[in-house]
Structure prediction request, 226 residues.
Amino acid sequence: MRPTHLTGESAEYVSAREELQQVEIELMRHRERVAELRRKLPLGPVVEDYTFEEGPADLQAGDAPKRTVRLGDLFTGPGRDLVVYHLMYGKKQSEPCPMCTMWCDGFNGVAHHVAQNADLAIVAAADLPTLRAHARDRKWTNLRLLSAGSGSFKYDLGSEDAEGTQDSTVSVFTRDDGGSVRHVYSGHPRMSDDIDQRGIDLLSPVWHLLDLTRRGRGDWSAALSY
Prediction:
């Protein structure tokens, strides 16, 4: 399938582009297979009904009153899954992670689309006022923001070690027929010795747009900024 109607493409370019397109097709089919396997995972264990601290829904309304909510409270209706992004902020992470911040910028823009099919929350170890102050700076008005600093949620889900060092993680939960919250899936940036940072790249379109260019991502860690 010819992707453009441009003239003057060399035979070398056409051949290389056709080869690339076949690899892209293979990759898409493989990604569909991965997504299918993820959807078919059996339910994970019943998890503790963890508690979090949450402020007013209106981010501009200050940080009080503060209320305690449970993991099970984050489901807004039956038959819905819950996606939790673990923001690297708090404890040993004294400054908010720039990469996590970039991702949450994107989540804020698409949260109303996600809400059609699933529930979404951002959880950090930072105390509630600190987390909400960062969110106000970023204008995260569409995200549900929760502090888990006083509980074991982040440690149990692998986004925090025993010393309080934070890691970016995404976790998915569902409720079974009896109403218990079950773990479905968690993903981390570090997948193996040779995949140290790209395990949850699919959460951000920024990387994929840059991957379309000749330069690619470059030094992605140095390029991140607030």
Residues 11-39 form the longest helix (29 residues). The chain has a mean pLDDT of 92. The helical segments are 11-39, 98-114, 128-138, 153-156, 205-211, 220-223.
